[in-house]
Amino acid sequence: MKKHTILICLLIMGCSRHPHRDLAISYPFPRPDSTALTFLPGIISGDSLDFNAAFSPDGTSCYFSRSSGGVSDIYVTQFEGDQWQLPEMVSFSKGPFSEADPVFAPNGALYFISDRPSNEKDTLKNFNIWYVKPNGKGKWTEPVNERAVNSDSTEYYISFSANGNLYLASNRPGGYGSHDIYMSRLEDGAYTTPVNLGPAINAPQMEHDPYVTPDENAVIFTSVNRDDSKGTADLYYSVKSADNTWTPSRNLGTLINTPTYDFCPYISPDGKYFFFSSERDVKWIKTDALPGELKQLIVKTE
């Protein structure tokens, strides 16, 4: 199912301060500076609706979502030899259900969203958060429903802090708008009930697709139809104040936001590049192009 359709028509979708010091991602050429480029055209960004990007912990694989024929699936491209290979659908995504929004947790598990039923009695056609764990030789365990963060509503687009706290979007009741951003703490190995991030981030319209910096000092997200937006949906950010509250959110600006729909924010594990989705493709730009107060919170490896 196309994510844009899910978000707009159905209204049901969407490194700590010490990044990976031993990570060396083989980025393709040409590489962007202050102008966003399409990421891996013909491999990740093709003729389909391709969105979001997430690197594996070792930087040799990149996972993304692809929508075709009304179903979304998760694909992966591997860096082998001296180039990124044509993508393949991951094994757990082969089936009649839609899967999307892959991202790695600090413990190495791969989280994603799926509209598969949570059990044999589940008849709700909504998206929940699931995860798989590596099982050796590129294989994965069977998907597990992360029940503590899910509800009878839709949950989607996951992001993790370095300590394992989980940020997500949901259209569950009680929010400030149709979809809001929430956070669930990892305590004693289990997730707590998600808490709404509040009105500094969540507006009366619709917020989704959160990316949190590893130390939880900033969050980047998509907001729909705000007064200062450049297009249908723009990327915004909020930083955490000294009193541990979120500052009023601000637009990321015209170096990133377009007249179309901008979503799926993600910063590479080495802190060098900012990824987002726009115009049916995955885009990337140097993190140096981000606003100053946000840029200074990102630690880059050399």
Keywords:
2 helices, Neuraminidase, Exo-alpha-sialidase, 302 residues, 6-blade_b-propeller_TolB-like, WD40, 4-stranded antiparallel beta sheet, mainly beta, disordered N terminus
What can you tell me about this protein's structure?
The protein is mainly beta and 302 residues long. It contains 2 helices and 23 strands. It has one domain (3-295): 6 Propeller (Neuraminidase). The protein is 4% helix and 37% strand. Strands 2, 3, 4, 5 and 6 form a 5-stranded antiparallel β-sheet that branches. The protein has a 4-stranded antiparallel β-sheet with strand order 1-23-22-21, with no helix packed on it. The longest helix has 8 residues, at 3-10.
Gross morphology is globular
Portion of residues within helices:
under 10%
What count of helical segments does DSSP give? 2
The top-level CATH class is Mainly Beta
Most strands sheet: 5 strands, antiparallel
- How many strand units? 23
Shape-level CATH architecture: 6 Propeller
CATH superfamily: TolB, C-terminal domain
Q: What number of domains?
A: 1
What is the SS-derived class? mainly beta
How much of the polypeptide forms β-strand, as a percent range? 35-45%
Mean pLDDT: 91
- Element-level helix/strand string: HEEEEEEEEEEEEEEEEEEEEEEEH
Radius of gyration: 18 Å
Low-pLDDT ranges: 1-21
What name does CATH use for the topology?
Neuraminidase
Query: What is the terminal separation in angstroms?
Result: 39 Å
Organism: Sinomicrobium pectinilyticum
Pfam families: PD40
Protein name: Exo-alpha-sialidase
Family: Belongs to the TolB family.
